[in-house]
Amino acid sequence: MFTFDIYLKAVIIAIVEGLSEFIPISSTGHMILVGDIIHFSGEKAATFEIFIQLGAILAVVVIYWDKFTGLIPVKKAEDSWLQAVFFNRSYPTNLQILVAIVPFLIVGFFAHKYIKLYLFNPLTVAMGLIVGGILMIVVEKLPLTFKAEKLDQISLKQAFLVGLGQCAAIWPGMSRSGSTMITGLLVGVKHKPVADFSFIIAVPVMCAAVGYDLLKSYSLLEKADIPYFALGFFVAFLVGWASVKWFLKVLTTIKLIPFGIYRIILGVFCLWFFS
Known about the structure:
The protein is mainly alpha-helical and 275 residues long. The protein has one domain (4-274). The protein is built from 13 helices and no strands. Helix 3 packs across helix 11 and helix 9 packs across helix 10. It is globular and about 60 Å long.
């Protein structure tokens, strides 16, 4: 029988997920750290943390609704089905999304077992936070040249390289959005379009990862879990929506350095706290 305590912990974790999923500070890392502090752990807690990511995903779908509906193939008389599916006239195209997500899906599939076994602990998360934070500051200090200043200027090569950089996010603490944004800046994509692209490709990547994890842990769930799982989903959606809106608004002004500094401070604190 569940008590009020489980609902309070569910709300706390859902707020952490919503706030950090699409901001480059690592949602997985924060949930591991906060979960450890509030004693929200175990297989069912891990399943809850996976499930509520769907709420954050839904927030992105709502914000970029026109982009996602634009990905639906519409065949014109002069087009082949191949052109209609992969070279749709909205940006990013389905082909750009495909080349961006395939590297992560391949690496994630083969490394999933070892990631869960060796990297999901507070100390490895702390190291990921620090390394990612340092990289953000270093990249922002480089004399970068931007070839893509809008979303529709991102090339197929840039899309692939951003997707390749996303593979660094298999290390909890590195951050999926952080990894893609660092890579995007390095290959010549400006802050706002790389953030937009990062959020859009997050949806299929996260759906695949969440779906895979939920299939493996579905047997752990009971009917009594539905209320606090639903609460967590709803809270993650609301907070995630507000978080993405805020991040897109301030990104072009503050850029990544404040997030890098925050990550380093938090990472050092966690090394001390959990050592």
